[in-house]
Here is the input.
Amino acid sequence: MQVTEPVHKGAKVVVIGTGMVGATFAYTAVMKGLISELVLIDVDHQRAEGEAMDLNHCLPFASPMKIYAGDYSDCVGAHIIVITAGAPQKPGQTRLELAQTNTKIMQDIIQRVIHYNSDTILLVATNPVDVLTHAAIEFSGFSPRRVIGSGTVLDTARLRYLIAEQMGLDPRSVHAYVIGEHGDSELVVWSSANIAGMRLQDFCPVCRSYYNGPVLETIFENVKNAAYEIIKRKKATYYGIAMGLHRIVESILLDQGSVWTVSTLINDYYGIDGVCLGLPAVIDSTGISKILRIPLSEEEAQLLAASAAIVKEVTLGALGRQPKQDGVVRDYVLDTRAD
Ligand code: NAD
Here is the structure.
């Protein structure tokens, strides 16, 4: 990997959408002290102002930095723009409608951003994140390497945590990935999940934990249902994604070459083309420097293709390219939960 000067000295980051996710990301950034200038933008400017005021009171306990509520002209010179703005799903609203609503919001945001900054890296967390990452690539005209979706970063974190809990390990020592749609059609790459290079079934006798199909199935169900369970209890999830977004930002600013399962536009990936999906990719100061073609079993490749088909159909619909089929609105399976 090319070693470049880390850009974090004087790094400027803009957060667009200062709701639960955006504000928690901002708080994480203040705690970590990597950023020098943090701009908060929200359609509800007062909310952004309130968050900036509150966050500034962390500074005596953290590192010096500039935090303020701004407008789009403050995107000038930003190294990274984190987009967490979006409308939540309303009762009676279809998932496709939510994708369309948030795609319109994304279009508006991107048009304003590129007026002031066309060299930045965009980091998208708004759901449905794979669809909106694709939309951000289209509306910005940026190289897909500079438009990163949070993809299955959070799902992968949940998986690693749950496997670690089952096996009595540190989650950082678990190497396993969730790929595909950030939502119901995602899949776990069990075929290469490992601990210190040992396959899970080989590791289990060592840690005396129980490994079998039903245990894995339960872990996967708990990964997929984590957001529903959290939202049922506290209306939204934001700590995990905020940390995940910050690790991606850190990987960029420090040119770390870290592997994260980000959402990225793929071509000829196990025969899949022209759709954004969560896949392991190398993140450095250029953005996405490599998408990793990981080994998949035949069944995993089929599940990935099925996930891609679902995301592609919704993406085309959200971008206004869905051919009308007998006027029937299909029951899209793409999950657009606020997770
Ligand atoms: P929230 O409702 O608390 O915040 C959304 C914010 O966006 C609000 O402050 C709102 O005023 C702002 N907003 C709306 N339209 C805007 C516009 N045009 N310009 C600027 N700001 C605008 O929601 P949240 O809980 O913070 O979630 C934000 C998004 O992140 C949602 O789409 C949610 O589904 C998604 N999310 C993604 C992940 C992930 O893993 N990718 C995880 C959690 C949440």
About this structure: Residues 16-22, 42-44, 47, 84-86, 88, 105, 108-109, 125-127, 129, 150, 154, 182, 236-238, 241, 338-339 surround nicotinamide-adenine-dinucleotide (CB under 6 Å). The first strand starts at residue 12 and ends at 16. Residues 323-339 have pLDDT under 50 and may be disordered. The CA atoms of residues 7 and 253 lie 5 Å apart.
